[in-house]
Amino acid sequence: MLSGLFTRSAASAADFTHLRQARVELRDVIKQYDGHRVLNGVNLTVEPGEVVTILGPSGSGKSTLIRLINQLESLSGGDIFIDDKPIGQLKGAALRQLRSRIGFVFQQFNLYAHLTAQAEHYAGAGVCAWLE
Prior knowledge:
Rossmann fold; MetN_ABC_transporter-like; cell membrane; 4 helices; alpha+beta; 4-stranded antiparallel β-sheet; single chain
């Protein structure tokens, strides 16, 4: 499945410069730390233009899920696609390019002190609008 992506240079095969709104798909995503499974078979599709908020109790894997999409963490299993392109094996310029097109807001210590969680969600939607 990944062979077609990497027969050419990763940077040219995985060109994300066109992205303003993209489809993000997670298929059977698994993440483990030292044998402890923190994400188990997550499936999620975010359509172009859709703004999504991930809510859940502390330790439920919200930040881990987002870090996987941005490739700040490596998958233990499953696949992540941006506009139908697998991103799990990106490196170098292609990975930097992908990261430059993805934005997210973390919780707790990275919160904007003057905003509620709901306001942060809408701030993310505003950033998407600024890019258009």
